[in-house]
Design brief:
Elements: H1 2-6, H2 11-40, H3 48-56, H4 62-68, H5 84-109, H6 121-145, H7 153-172, H8 175-199, H9 202-205, H10 209-225, H11 242-252, H12 261-288, H13 295-317, H14 346-377, H15 383-398
Length: 402
């Protein structure tokens, strides 16, 4: 700010420029969003309020701030870049204004709970379950009807995330079931860790701390990709000693890359180890499903772990001419390479999943909005529930790609 202020610009002039630029940004964004809403929505559906919410809640200029600092200090002839400080000041000030605008207006435009009276949490969850069920049906149909193998990994991840959302909504619909799910999850975590301890990290990862650290970091990445989070990610991938923990911390800080024969072998072993942990969870939950008090929670969690298991096997068999069958009692060894006849496609699979992830997620959210519209038209959900569910989707659309 100082260089701009001490130069030949007065404070009222600078504030006027900031106000004008902020108004232009907001108005242009609102007109664009409104045009898109009018194009994609059916006639008679209110769009002004939703377009305004999306405008105010939209991106706030992180990219703008990054780009503005790329302006060179001098031109090619060595002279100072004209009004560089003023441009940086204006960009930063407009970003600040849009942040303050969102902070002040969003709680009034979209208050917590959606601002719709007469809608209970139970009614909202029932509506969300119907929407997610319909969205999943369409996503599965898309996956089955799509012959392009490049698009296969991304829809599988999207479908897995929707299955998790659906099961969470179903479990939360019943408070007692939700508590039982939390208890069962803790027991499943313990069972999986016991399974991992019985197998031993040396079986797949190797005997040296460095080898095991690389393997454990890959295992955590695999578990995170099938829906685990927090403490659950670390199950089966931990050291007792300080040296091993430091090595694992170092390996985990690196971006996930599967390039080369060794990395392909490591990813394959991590998937096999994760499969064993899923079998441990499934065996335990099948036993728990016989308990009348925990049947519903056990079935919901069982569905999640079977989905994770199926995802892991799909990764192993992706693009392979000879498919490996799901079974227990896998060869628990540190493999020197991929099995004979198996092509190294894990790296390609991850790249394809990352390449199409945003596109598939965007399509899924569009399907979700369409499901909300259909259910509202059929009278399966009320207008207030539909409005709140749309706002949830808008938030997900805004954060897409973060």
């Amino acid at each position: 700010m100082s260089p701009a202020f001490v130069d030949h610009f007065s404070l009222p002039f600078l504030l006027g420029l900031v106000a004008l630029a902020t108004v232009l940004v907001v108005v242009c964004r609102f007109l664009w969003v409104l045009a898109m809403e009018l194009v994609h929505r059916d006639r008679g559906t209110p769009v002004l309020r939703d377009a305004l919410i999306l405008t105010i809640a939209g991106p706030k200029g992180a990219v703008t701030l990054s780009i503005i600092f790329l302006i060179p200090r001098t031109l090619a002839d060595g002279s100072a870049f004209p009004e560089r400080d003023l441009l940086i000041f204006l960009a930063a000030s407009v970003i600040l204004c849009t942040l303050l605008l969102a902070d002040g207006l969003l709680p009034r435009l979209a208050p917590l709970g959606g601002g719709c009276k007469g809608t209970s949490a139970t009614e909202l969850r029932r509506g969300a379950i119907k929407v997610l069920e319909g969205t999943l049906r369409e996503l599965r149909a898309m996956l089955q009807n799509d012959d392009d193998p490049q698009l296969e990994p991304a829809p599988r991840q999207t479908i897995a995330s929707y299955r998790l959302r659906l099961n969470r909504e179903r479990g939360a619909l019943d408070d007692s079931c939700s508590r039982q799910m939390d208890e069962l999850q803790a027991e499943v975590r313990q069972r999986q860790q016991q399974k991992a301890d019985a197998i031993g990290g040396e079986a797949y990862g190797g005997e040296s701390p460095r080898e095991r650290a690389s393997f454990y970091a890959m295992l955590r990445a695999v578990r995170r990709s099938v829906g685990y989070s927090g403490t659950d990610v670390k199950v089966g991938a931990r050291f007792g000693g300080l040296l091993g923990r430091v090595a694992l911390l170092w390996q985990g800080a690196k971006p996930l890359e599967v390039e080369g024969d060794e990395a392909e072998r490591l990813y394959y072993d991590a998937c096999l180890f994760a499969i064993e942990l899923e079998h441990g969870a499934i065996d335990f939950l099948e036993e728990s499903a016989t308990d009348e008090g925990r049947q519903r929670a056990a079935r919901l969690l069982l569905d999640e772990h079977k989905t994770a298991l199926n995802s892991l096997w799909n990764r192993i068999n992706y693009g392979q001419d000879v498919k490996q069958a799901d079974h227990t009692g896998l060869t628990l060894v540190h493999h020197d390479g991929l099995p004979a006849g198996m092509r190294p496609l894990f790296g390609k699979q991850l790249l394809e999943a990352a390449r199409y992830a945003d596109e598939v997620d965007a399509d899924a959210l569009t399907i979700e909005l369409d499901q909300i519209r259909r259910l509202q038209e059929d009278g399966a959900i009320s207008e207030s529930v539909a409005q709140q569910l749309r706002q949830r989707v808008y938030v997900l659309q805004i954060t897409l790609g973060d």
